[in-house]
UniProtKB/TrEMBL annotation:
Species of the source: Salinimicrobium sediminis
Family named by the database record: Belongs to the aconitase/IPM isomerase family.
Gene Ontology, cellular component aspect: cytosol
Protein name: Aconitate hydratase A
Enzyme class, spelled out: lyase
Amino acid sequence: MAYDIDMIRKVYDQMGERVNAAREVAGKPLTLSEKILYSHLWDGKPTQKYTRGKDYVEFAPDRIACQDATAQMALLQFMQAGKKTVAVPTTVHCDHLIQAKLGAQFDLPSAKKSSDEVFDFLESVSNKYGIGFWKPGAGIIHQVVLENYAFPGGMMIGTDSHTVNAGGLGMVAIGVGGADAVDVMAGMAWELKFPKLIGVKLTGKLSGWTAPKDVILKVAGILTVKGGTGAIIEYFGEGAQSMSATGKGTICNMGAEIGATTSTFGYDASMERYLRATNRADVADAANEVKEHLTGDAEVYANPEQYFDEVIEINLSELKPHLNGPFTPDLATPISEMGEKARANDWPINVDWGLIGSCTNSSYEDLTRAASIAKQAVDKKVKAKSDFGINPGSETIRYTAERDGLLQIFEDLDATIFSNACGPCIGQWDRSDRKGEEKNTIVHSFNRNFSKRADGNPNTHAFVGSPEMVAAIAISGRLDFDPTTDTLLNEDGEYVKLDEPTGIELPPKGFDVEDPGYLAPTEDGSSVEVKVNPDSERLQLLEPFEPWDGKNIIGAKLLIKAFGKCTTDHISMAGPWLRFRGHLDNISNNCLIGAVNAFNMKTNFVKNQITGDYDGVPATQRKYKAAGIPTVVVGDHNYGEGSSREHAAMEPRHLGVKVVLVKSFARIHETNLKKQGMLGITFENESDYDLIQEDDTFNFIDLENFSPDKQLTIEIVHADGSKDVIKANHTYNLPQIEWFREGSALNLIKKENAAA
């Protein structure tokens, strides 16, 4: 039986009435995305039509999922909200704090020892507030959610950008910051700008070396890292129905890399098969009763241009396998063209590592397709030229794969089986062959390949591909290897060719596991004590941020003008910094250390306008804060893309930054800034970015009249006394301006709870 089956049945019981009402107020057939959105309105039955990309709407998500790195700050915030238990089903998953090094048998005990106080905190706070807890080693959050909690037609939010993975089971699942999750945990509405809709029509059928991963690699190349911003991507067509549920999950998962709010597919037979295989026949039966509401209306898919803001069509029968990268997930290259492109760009041809797994590609089907290539190498006496690393998606996947002999196939190629955790995908990798200044290449089936993402080395060129393609390239040891045409020299001196991969959608013997790693909370957690050592370097109870004084911000200094791509990895790095995710002051020592200073093209090296000296960003900002001087961060396009980590908003807020002024924001980061009481604004004219000089002072001369749809005026005073006056845009509505006035959204929640 499924977890929370009564909640799921309630969603389905009211869905028909709400969808019909939405169709009436909208005056047209509905996409699947619209059906789910309108059936999850905070006020219940729809009574008005919402304008895509404009109207802020309050929703009532069905559940919340948190991974351990972000759960620390989210739950530290929830502890301040004054609630006895969470208002909606919530789970915590320990998957980010396990470093990959020697293999699961060594790495998991090491992680439990080094992060015991964090795991103990998360387990106890979960137990106290009615939250399901998945232990270290239980699996990667998004694979565990897909196996246990995701359901067609549902809405969930999660404190990780790849929450969108659950779209593989027909959900609208959206990555958010911890403050958003806290709102919903506390029984409040969750606000989102009603998304635009991008339709992707899939025709034909995948075959040969082409995999579901290649669909999103192709889409990423079309839309780029910001092309999906503010939109839900809805896949449909015969090609969509021909793929497995986990294949759909892979496509939805990596939709986060193109800025999409989320991605989803309509309910079909593959989802029903997956639900039944994962012991959720009750969900499948309930979904079948309302299945007409769990996909878009027929008129929508027949004439998609009339109902979507943008339509992309991909013929799966013609789609070629791709590799995307390096350094950005939208640089898409068909594998047949990679050799020529690599040589033209001086990318290292030799491949040092092939990494398979992560939340993107760690299902049973993924492992079988990759294993089919690995087994050929063993059988055809081809020795792998690259090192192999495997991260199973969950203990259920690992146990079943071991039972069925899949892991042994990889081990026969000397692969290292890492823990059921994120590992290298999020920078938790103690790489055995550190390269230093030497340029090097790795290939992986992960979702992100930003500079320094996997191993902290800016010289590592990471390329993203399907598990089977990663396996083939790692076996060959060459980036320019095209398994569709090329051959390999085996130990007998013979040239052999790899056959096309084969996969098994679901294990013929069924899934099995001895201990899935789940701990249910006690029914009454009032007596549970949550302990945080005041001397801990890992955990720190939060102090509320100061409210706005209602005055204009005058005399603010430039902290940094970030050049080019500035993701949340640049603003708040992961890797070794993950250990401080529960201690705001300590982790603030990584604030913006990865951002490139536009004035010297260096990282973590900015001018202190008080002394004229150059120092690291956090050290410089702490001096400004000590002197009572407000500061401004200036950035380029899509500022804050990538992970949902709210630390990227909380750290500058904690250190005293008042304003972030950029050309454009990534959706989650903009919301995180608002939630933490920051002023996140954009240049009216993008070229005004070029006006900003290293010694500038900023005066926000009409902030006292801060109101929706009203531009802000900024006076920029240069070192020579000259001035430029520019306009800035913002997207704050009245409730969000109230967050700013109160100092944070959490401050407002506490204030309202105290008054209740």
